[in-house]
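EI: anyone free to look at a 191-residue chain?
SC: sure, send it
EI:
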Amino acid sequence: MTAPSHAYFFGYGSLVNRDTHSFKDAHPARLNGWRRTWLPTNLREVAFLSVVEDQDSWIDGLIAPVPDADWHALDIREGAYDRIPAQHMVRHPLPHSPQIAVYSVPRNYDGAAKGGHHLLLSYIDVVVQGYLREFGSGGAQHFFDTTDGWDAPVLDDRADPHYPRACRLSRGERDVVDDGLANLPVEMRRA
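SC: here you go
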């Protein structure tokens, strides 16, 4: 019997979609005191999905052990993000109390790139598909409700995804994404 890992991350975006990673033993969890936001940065034209503190909010996601407690490898995947200790803010089903971190884009990158910024529909698809699979339609709706920054244009790149971990969605999953976006003040643009 192996000892439980004591290094976990909390995923709230593409990491909720198990098809985008190979992290084993992922579990649904809840991060209290935070909400998601699409954050424009001076690093690239595509906005990052990040989290910001909000004491009146909570978000669902997945926690998973960091393989071999190798934070460095995960830090590379989450390159523009800072790793923030979050174990005291995460509700989870584990019988032990692991170290848990959440990744958030630091404010020193704040501000749109010179050409402006946009969101990728292929990335939104991946995230919503993950929430549908893990938390059902209510979880997908909660994603839309607890995410800010929808004022950026959404680039419709479904036919030729720009997101490197893009996933194929079923017609029903696409409908959930499209309906969720239709209820938000988003401007759709063709890729």
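EI: The mean pLDDT is 91.
SC: 👍
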